[in-house]
Specification:
Layout lengths: L1 H8 E3 H7 L4 H9 L8 E10 L4 E12 L3 H9 L5 H21 L1 H9 L9 H12 L2 H5 L5 H18 L8 H17 L12 H12 L7
Antiparallel strand pairs: 1-3, 2-3
Helix pairs in contact: 5-6, 5-9, 6-10, 9-10, 10-11
């Protein structure tokens, strides 16, 4: 169920603010200043509770923030991220460090050698879109913690898998199939499970579930 998923992975805005020693007004101010992401999910409740004591009609809007965004709140305080420019600079410092670590890893080297054009897509336009998506709460939906290093790993994982699978299974060598399997496992560690109603349309379906079922079936992990 959707609400079970949301309460397992997110905090409703009142609880999120309380967990981070903020008032709702202070949290909203950070969002309006483009320092902190907006809620990843908005849930409009329209229901009725029946009990021995009373009948209750509920018409409420709930906003959910990823639990992992507590890490971003800690960074705001620790590094004095009091403006969008400072927050964006810090975000891309972390994002760039994740890219550098990935590029120097064994998997990163193999993927870059196999698909050298993928990392070229991480240009200024891509950075602008990434920052806007971060502020809109998008990475609270599609990554496990929503933080900059995971954002890069999620983006690059999807892009490398799409590049590797573009030709179809019959045109992939055994070495490429092994590399694809490693990349799917890598993406699985950073990408969220997605809400139940979203999975079918998600990159998890396209790049993990479908790839495992159609291309990697029968291949040992």
């Amino acid at each position: 169920m959707l609400l079970n998923y949301l309460y397992d992975h997110f905090l409703e805005e009142h609880d999120f603010a309380r967990a981070n020693d903020l008032s709702l007004a202070e949290l909203q101010q950070l969002i309006e200043k483009r320092i902190f992401p907006a809620a990843s999910y908005t849930y409009n409740s329209s229901g009725r509770s029946l009990s021995f004591v009373s009948n209750f009609v509920d018409e409420t809007t709930y906003r959910f923030h990823l639990v992992g965004y507590t890490g971003w709140m800690k960074a705001i305080r620790r590094y004095g991220l009091d403006s969008e420019d400072r927050a964006r600079t810090y975000f891309f410092d972390c994002y760039g460090a994740s890219r550098a670590a990935f590029a120097s890893s064994d998997l990163g080297k193999l993927l870059t050698a196999a698909q050298p054009d993928v990392l070229d897509q991480f240009n200024a336009d891509h950075a602008n879109a990434t920052w806007d998506h971060f502020l809109n709460g998008v990475y609270g939906v599609c990554t496990r913690d929503g933080l900059p290093d995971s954002v890069f790993l999620k983006q690059s994982g999807v892009m490398f898998i799409e590049a590797l699978t573009a030709r179809g299974r019959d045109r992939l060598s055994d070495k490429e199939m092994d590399l694809l399997s490693q990349t799917v496992m890598h993406l699985d560690t950073v990408e969220s499970e997605f809400a139940p109603h979203e999975v079918e349309k998600s990159s998890r379906q396209r790049c993990i579930i479908d790839v495992r079922e159609t291309l990697l079936s029968g291949i040992a992990a």
